[in-house]
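Thread: Modeling a multi-component assembly for a lab meeting

Hi all, long-time lurker, first post. My supervisor asked me to bring a structural picture of a complex we are working on to next week's group meeting, and I have zero experience with this. I have the sequence lines for every component (707 residues in total). Could someone generate the structure of the whole assembly? Inputs are pasted exactly as I received them:
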Amino acid sequence: MKIALAGNPNSGKTTLFNAITGKTEYVGNWPGVTVEKKEAFLKNSYQTFNTSVRIVDLPGAYSIAPYTGEEAITRDFVTGENPDVIINIIDANSLERSLFFTTQLLELGIPVVIALNKQDILKRHGDAIDSNKLASLLNCSVVETVANKEKGIKRLIEVAIETASSKSIQAPPDLDFNVERNEDNARQKFTSVIVKECHVSNRDTNEISLSDRLDRIVAHKWLGLPIFFLVMWAVYAFSIEGVGGFLSEYMNEYIFGEIVPDAANAFFEGIGVSPLLQSLIVDGAIGGVGAVVGFLPLIMVLFFCLGLLEDSGYMSRVAVVMDRFFKKIGLSGKSIIPMIVGSGCAIPGVMATRTIEDINERRMTTILTPFVPCGAKIPIIALFSAVFFPNASWVGPSMYLLAIIMITLGGLLLKKIFVWENTSIFLIELPEYKIPSLKHATTQMFKHAKGFIIKATTIILVMNTLVWFMQAYGWNLRPVAMQDASILASFGGLISPLLIPLGFVGWQLAAAILTGFVAKENVVATFAVLLAVASEDALHLPGGVLAGIFNPVTGYAFLAFNLFTPPCFAAIGAMNSELGSKKWLFRAIGFQLGVGYVVAMVISQIGSIIVYGETAIGFGSSIFVLISIILLVTRLIHKSDNKVKQILAEASEGGI
Amino acid sequence: MPTIIVGLIFFGIIGVAAYKSRQSMKNNSCPGCSGSCSIQEKQKCGRSTKI
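Re: Modeling a multi-component assembly
Sure thing. I ran the full set together rather than chain by chain. Output:
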């Protein structure tokens, strides 16, 4: 049996899906979180019949006529894949708007059961809906639910399975298309009548709610942005300087710095394993993976805090605040949703761009979303913060600030090069503020932790074994006495001249950048393998081995370089799918490489002049590179201008 | 002998990790397959999710 969950965005479909399947799919308190259909089997505790029940969670839709890509997925599924029953999740607080889609679902002939969700909020407002009357008016069953508290869910599933088993054909709603020719108007009239009959509101419509009062401050046109920075600062300060940072320091310094390597060394020496294999396992695998896993507590605390923030409803306000800035660069507040999702991982962030209808805005958001610091970049930020800026909580939030600045400037540049005007209007339904759920935040935290550990024990483990081999062996496949004669040094040496204008010297840096394209955490792990083999000094300590190849300014420039250069291969794959053409993918990669390169170069050279009173290494070549890039960009803009002029001339000749 | 046994175990783990990495990279780079979708969906991934 196949049950589809369909409804308006942010009505609680994925919350219901997670509750009845035991999955932990991403849930956010804003519209447009789910952009793909998700499938799983009904969990045993809800299994009342002896049937295998498959649940399909569909992206939110306002209408069966798709306006965006993810709405098309919902339309295709309900019209083409014949689910046995549709559970239509309705936010009881937005009954009239939700019923528009309901009337369309009821016309498909597939049995529909309505889950009248968010009853707790409805009752808190002093409102009520007569669900029996609603059921009789719509000719379908209605069950009252509170999905996030798992109330009414058992009854809902029972009713849905019973309805599906009866194999009945859904009767369409009593819409009169003869009186009202416009179909949409007919539906709206019909839903208005239903709401009048079923909905009892005791709310004073003139009363300003607490949410409205908070929005006057939080979403204020001038105060909104500083408040966002303060919030992010608090989150980072708590994560890095608080318990997360403390536990990470302990894990890096003692557990993976002393206890585990010492125990492994003692064990391998005791059983007489060859020193080469011992070094591969201890320095390569344990050293590399340990350097990344050491940041697990920090990542967990950070995602717990972000989970609380998401669930509170605050993030939707950030979209409103950013809308007015983004409008100036051809984007809108719609672009902020993928960017917020991208702060966890760039892949779902890039995928979330399909909620944007305008093709240019969607492409631009796909290119700019990986600029937001994702979870994989956190270990790099934390490592460089600990080594070069100990006890400074500003480094993490400054990466967000830098990301917003570069998204704005990058957006302006893209708009100039690929001339377009964005005419799309940003409308978002702001969810009411709520006390964030600890369960939601904990689920998100463990989900990210699990993903982090899986990544560390798969791709990072493999890469570090490879890195260890490549730094220990030469091209003749014999161990080398000095790392400089290794395979890795020759690869790094090929790229390192290109990094000189950035003030970065050394093949080790180039090697770390290369492995970072596989997974960003590899940057930390590669440094751990390369520098741990070459030195006894700890990687994570202030003034440690990293201070030998960076100073605070070039270290900060290296952070910026990793932030803006193309993301990992998997995210590039997601970009490829969303951009839909190789031409646009190469443009995107070229743009990201250029931005990362120029930002790191400017920070490194100008920062060195300001902080140390002298230029960094490679100042002369940086001037040459900068002039070349300026000329290239000017040429591209000029070419675009000519193209526009040509189109306008052709249009005027053709009399358009 | 201990070197051979430890080596076999270690490279066995690396082999499994490499296989899993390849699978996850394949899934992650394909939006339709990154969630808990069906095998049929995974097979036609890329076509079914295009806008």
